[in-house]
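hi! just following up on the protien thing from before. the input was this:
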Amino acid sequence: MSIVSYNNRSLQSVTDLEGVTKTMVLLSTQTASSSATISFTSGIDATYPVYMFKFIDIHPATDQTFLTFQADTGTNTNYNQTATTSYFTAYHGEDGSNGTLTYNTSYDEAQSTDFIYIADRTGTDNDQCIAGTMHVFSPASTTFAKHFIVNTNCYEQSNYTSEVFVGGYFNTTTAITRFQFKMSSGNIDAGTIKLYGIKDS
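and the predicted 3d structure came back as:
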């Protein structure tokens, strides 16, 4: 029988993949229901080197709004950590129009404490929503800045698919322990956000 290597692990059979899937540990699930904010205030520490958020069918209550987030340290709830980010978008219309890749200087941050844009203008039609992931690296580090990478796709109000790529860092060497998500205007009408810890990463 041949041996296959996956993520520096030797696998002898398909059943060995069970160990690979266990590297991702579900820590928390929150479901919005006309929620002004969704906050994750526990479980983010030095246990895992990487944490991942999954955004599942995030539906805004207000048309043409952006999904945003911020972070904080200790037991603080100001959610105003200084961040620098880049933000670019690939989008395409349902009718085949305007297939474009663009860098959006209006939505990036330069040493700002504002909430950070991580998804484009999303509509409120019944079938319009946001899905995607965000990875946060070593949030408990007291040596380095805290990097994050976001990839979301949204169904825009003008019937576009908009894939958003955001990268950045929180410019603090204090451990980050909590995250908050909200729309740029209005509530999160519905949707689920899951938090995972990723072992051996």
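Helices lie at 17-21.
The mean pLDDT is 92.
cheers
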